[in-house]
Amino acid sequence: MVLKQFEYLSIKEKAVLGRYVVNGQIDGFLEKFKDKYEVKTLGVSVLGLPIRSITLGSGPIKVLMWSQMHGNESTTTKAVLDLINYLDSDLPKAETVRKNCSITIIPILNPDGAVVYTRVNANAVDLNRDAQQRTQSESRALRSAFDELQPDYCFNLHDQRTIFNVGDTSKPATISFLAPAHDEIRSVSPARSLSMKLIVAMNTMLQKQIPGQIGRYDDAFNADCVGDTFQMTGTPTVLFEAGHHPDDYDRERTREYIFQALITALNMIVVEAVLELNESDYFLIPENQKRYYDILIRNAHIIVPSLKKGDAIGILYVETLNNKTIDFVPKIEKIGSLDSYYGHKTYNCLIDSDLKSLEKYSALTDLFSAF
């Protein structure tokens, strides 16, 4: 099931936009639901900020999902706010999901990292490498929620960088999925099989909207990762990665695709249609590669004479927090032939119109002056 555009816009949480999403916005959002659904504080962050959850629905199928485990990965947080609005609505199938599922959502697991827009928490720990030791209060809050709920499914929600393309194509990986491994040999357990089938369902839906822009993450096993750990317990777990869509650095388009994927997965769970899917189709989704730059400048020797003829410049944006907004600051990442790489924006200095376009980027001119 896919919501039509006007239906999605009717439930999209328009008060939360852009890349900088913090607890203050989430607290205000959850406040309006506290008398209708269970809103809890699961624990506090290292710096004492609350880690909150909301549970919607009263059905026997229990789903746990969490976002912003990495504080600078906010796209899926926006998507789960849209999901909460959807589940609270009278739109088709929302009521069916509520009757059949109990869905617990943690919008921001790492509120300290969100405030300063960093991947790690206030102790500089990557929470997605703390699943076994659980040295951090945020890790313990998530595991306590998992142990208390004993969910039937887990959704682990993240953002991915703009560097990823799909397989050997020039398509950006706008959405990527992973059915985490549960052992070193990456065998397919019953739980992992269900994870794969859910991904097949979401991929089928998304291919109709963004064909060729769905990738698959490498499934190397790491017991310290939360997804692998939960998969080891026999709980089907799916990793979602929100990536880049052309000209969508605020990731509002990607937000919608993640939302559509979430409701697709929930609907498949409710009607048990997921059981009919073929897990082998999961492996037909191409693996991600890292072949993208935000800006790729070919034949850059024309504007930087010290470079070799034919050299290209690959530039990546550094996401920089500036007064509660995110600036995208260009940084030269690599110089060389870069023949097998792509650019979200590509300029060829042999073409006059491209040269004129480049002249408008004062930040790039400053970069080139270093040569």
TrEMBL record:
Entry protein name: Zinc carboxypeptidase
Residue ranges occupied by any Peptidase M14 domain in the UniProt entry: 7-269
Keyword Hydrolase: yes
Single GO MF annotation: zinc ion binding
Statement: the UniProt record of this protein carries the keyword Manganese: no
Pfam families: Peptidase_M14
Key words of the record: Carboxypeptidase, Hydrolase, Protease
Family the entry assigns: Belongs to the peptidase M14 family.
Signal peptide: none
Single GO biological process annotation from the record: proteolysis
Domain of life: Bacteria
